[in-house]
Design goal:
This protein is an alpha/beta fold and 138 residues long. It has one domain: Sandwich (Immunoglobulin-like). It contains one helix and eight strands, in the order αββββββββ. The strands form two sheets. It has a four-stranded mixed sheet with strand order 1-3-6-5, with no helix packed on it. The chain has a four-stranded mixed sheet with strand order 2-8-7-4, with no helix packed on it. The protein is globular and about 40 Å long. The termini are far apart.
């Protein structure tokens, strides 16, 4: 009896681990972005959101130029990073960040890259996010 329970427990744990791996590799994240921006050619851009909105920031991956995306810097009291993933679309390597606006204000998201051969981290793209700035009459 104990052997059956242990075997069943192992099977259940394996199933959930396997399901978690497949769920995280998809472009479908379960989040519905209120704003989706692509910053392929521009170094910087601006976007205005409402508190609670999800922002999708999509860009070309700099692998072809000898760099890899190494992270993002932002104000965690204003923005929460929900997801980061890399994918291929039309033969191009792309990356996407998803952020949720938590409070009113303004913050920069600095997407950083690092040379594949090692070296100094640099800013790859910049997004200025404003929330709640146009709530008044003027």
């Amino acid at each position: 009896m104990l052997r059956k329970i242990n075997g069943f427990s192992v099977a259940v744990v394996f199933f959930f681990m396997l399901a978690g791996c497949f769920g995280s590799s998809s472009l479908e994240t379960g989040l519905s972005p209120a704003e989706h921006i692509e910053i392929d050619d521009d170094y910087s851009t601006e976007v205005t959101l409402e508190r609670g909105d999800v922002l999708a920031v999509d860009m070309l991956n700099p692998l072809g130029k000898g760099y890899r995306i190494s992270g993002a810097s932002f104000d965690p009291s204003m923005l929460r990073m929900e997801r980061f993933f890399e994918y291929t679309e039309d033969g191009e390597s792309r990356a996407r960040y998803l952020f949720t606006a938590l409070m009113d204000g303004s913050s920069d998201i600095l997407i950083k890259m690092k040379p594949l051969q090692g070296g100094t981290e640099e800013v790859y793209r910049q997004v200025t996010v404003g929330t709640g700035e146009n709530d008044g009459l003027f």
